[in-house]
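Re: [ENG-882] Designed sequences occasionally contain unexpected residues at chain ends

Forwarding the minimal case from QA. Structure tokens:
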């Protein structure tokens, strides 16, 4: 085990990583490849993380270090559950990501609304800079979202 993070295990092809904290809390980090029929979504992944047993969050810096390490290790190794806690995870990840000072990856956040249906999407993407240009990804995602919303 590294001294600044917990050891973790990987399961499955759409990888699920888990780790146990010193407080006995079990966390997961999952990755799901965006499987859309649009080449601009190649090598894009949806990432989710949280505590598996819905126990109270305990402040532990090794949790954020481990999740960031898993994410960066995932993208190095693989170059190619809605529970109403997405906003909490998003804010927490934003904080951790900004502290990571990593120049190899970019994080893109897109807020998309369909006012007539009162729908609000908050999408976040992290990707390697060598594969994608952030402005190009942003434009293609917005185009795809417009296409989805017009298909109703």
């Amino acid at each position: 085990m590294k001294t600044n993070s917990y050891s973790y295990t990987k399961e499955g092809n759409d990888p699920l990583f888990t780790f146990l904290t010193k407080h006995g809390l079990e966390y997961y980090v999952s990755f799901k490849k965006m499987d859309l029929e649009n080449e601009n979504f190649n090598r894009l992944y949806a990432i989710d993380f949280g505590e598996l047993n819905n126990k109270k969050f305990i402040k532990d810096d090794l949790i954020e270090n481990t999740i960031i390490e898993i994410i960066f290790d995932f993208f190095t190794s693989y170059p190619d559950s809605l529970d109403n806690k997405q906003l909490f995870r998003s804010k927490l990840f934003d904080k951790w990501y900004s502290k990571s000072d990593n120049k190899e990856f970019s994080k893109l956040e897109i807020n998309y609304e369909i006012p007539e249906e009162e729908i609000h999407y908050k999408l976040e993407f992290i990707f390697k800079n060598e594969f994608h240009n952030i402005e190009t990804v942003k434009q293609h995602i917005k185009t795809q979202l417009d296409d989805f919303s017009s298909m109703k």
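QA comment: On inspection the terminal residues look reasonable. The chain has one domain: 9-150. Proposing we downgrade this to a documentation issue.
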